[in-house]
Amino acid sequence: MLGGALSISRLARWLGPWADPRAAPNVPTEDASVDQIRVRIYRPRGTPRRTYLIAPGLHYAGPDDPRMDRFCRILAAGGQLVIAPFIPSYLALTPNARAIADFETVFRALPRWSTQKPIVFSISFGSLLAFALAAKHGSAIDHLVIFGGYADFDETLQFCLTGTLSSGRAAPRDPLNQPVVLINLLPHLEPPCADPDAVVSAWNAYIHATWGRPEMKARERFTAAAAAIAVPAHVQALYDIGIGVAPGATELALSALTRFDSSALDPMPYLPRITNRVELVHGVDDDVIPYEHSHALAKQLVNADVRVHVTGLYGHTGAQRPKLSDAVRELVTMVRVLRVLAG
To answer: pTM (2 decimals)?
Structure first.
């Protein structure tokens, strides 16, 4: 009990709305390789309380992303051994069925570092990897913590373009994700792109220049960043549409989506096979995957022990300060979430 309380207090120090998002605890780390998949290990000081296996979200840097690296360090400072893989297709921002197999490969290698059943923690689109693993290896997993997971891949792409859900609710969307939608739908665009490699290279340069910088969500900032990228003239028009500098992305992408087979990215077939405890945590202001997706996932996890935690303290990219009128309620939710993370 005392160890759990100490772990919660350490997590609260770093994950509360009072924490400096640029600071992170200093913990031992090392990199390893599993069948050519890079893996980073974050070690606690002392005997690990639990082992965390991280199912990462879509990000070109993986655990090298300062936000993810900080989170893994915080878990380790709270007494957890953290295993964070660099999943190749997720680094490329193009999720596919191979990512599920790669994540399972890392899971099978866990005895190299731990004899404990892991807690599988997923971030954003990493929820697919966590659900697929639990459906197949649930007895070898302690439980799942799903942060900002998705229930419907196509609807998520549509939300990234329009900010509107199938229910009709409109919410703020992150405009910096629009080129990722186009990257995934590029083979299905009509008319076809004459030089896919060139436009993807330009979009990736833009993504590297803007992601992780909230101020870039302002139109004047991201359009200025887009203009600073050297783009070949023959793909400039499509590049501008993908960024949002020029109109037309929604029409172009929604048409391509009718030809895009997302069945390999559908989490629903895995959910009824999961019997573990599942903690679904979602930011109410998530501007990438709306919180309704966690409620939709909970309804389909019919054989699992499910808890849903919707909070205003954590968005898609980290902690945020609540309004004073909401502070007490949100701090109660935060304590619940920290208990989940403490294992």
So the answer is: 0.91
